[in-house]
């Protein structure tokens, strides 16, 4: 219901849909960051260890342990005592998709003239919140196919 007080606001259902999308992106953001970093560590060093995740994410080992438990529950990682962390097929797919989105955002920001270090930093947050339509527009703007 609109009245004079809310006339300047978007439709309530539309606004609720927008907020729901942001909450959904926040829920998957941590998962995506972790699986992308795990994939990068495995590619670079042959293994991903909880201590490396904690150091590179700037969080405590307890935070990593709790998050890994959730990632395992969600079917994204496999863990064995005294062994490295492994991605499941679903985790590998999520990592690849997240890395691709990150790259699109970085290339787009670079095409705007944003310095590389700033583009990398800004892409870390943006990559989780962009729609497929916006990513496609960024690709087109940057002269990419896809």
TrEMBL record:
Q: Which PROSITE patterns match?
A: HTH_DTXR
| Keywords, alphabetical | Activator, Cytoplasm, DNA-binding, Manganese, Repressor, Transcription, Transcription regulation
Where found in the cell? Answer: Cytoplasm
Q: Which Pfam families match?
A: Fe_dep_repr_C, Fe_dep_repress
Domain (HTH dtxR-type): give its ranges: 27-88
Is Acyltransferase there in the keyword field? Answer: no
UniProt cross-references to InterPro entries, sorted A to Z:
DtxR_MntR_Metal-Reg (IPR050536), Fe_dep_repressor (IPR001367), Fe_dep_repressor_sf (IPR036421), HTH_CRP (IPR012318), HTH_DTXR (IPR022687), HTH_MarR-typ (IPR000835), Iron_dep_repressor (IPR022689), WH-like_DNA-bd_sf (IPR036388)
In its keyword annotation, does this UniProt entry include Cell membrane? no
Q: Where the protein is mainly located, per its record?
A: cytoplasm
What subunit structure does UniProt give?
A: Homodimer.
User: What is the role of the protein in this entry?
Assistant: In the presence of manganese, represses expression of mntH and mntS. Up-regulates expression of mntP.
The entry sums up its family as follows: Belongs to the DtxR/MntR family.
> What is the name of this protein?
Transcriptional regulator MntR
């Amino acid at each position: 219901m609109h009245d004079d007080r809310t006339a300047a606001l978007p439709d309530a259902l539309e606004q609720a849909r927008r907020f729901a999308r942001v909450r959904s992106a926040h829920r998957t953001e941590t998962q995506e960051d972790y699986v992308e970093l795990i994939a990068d560590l495995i590619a670079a060093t042959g293994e991903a260890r909880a201590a490396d995740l904690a150091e590179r994410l700037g969080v405590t080992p307890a935070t990593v342990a709790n998050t890994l438990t959730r990632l395992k529950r969600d079917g994204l990682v496999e863990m064995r005592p005294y062994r490295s962390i492994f991605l499941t097929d679903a985790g590998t797919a999520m990592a690849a998709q997240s890395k691709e989105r990150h790259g699109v955002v970085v290339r787009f920001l670079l095409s705007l003239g944003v310095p590389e270090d700033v583009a990398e930093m800004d892409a870390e947050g943006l990559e989780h919140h962009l729609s497929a339509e916006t990513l496609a527009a960024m690709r087109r703007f940057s002269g990419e196919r896809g």
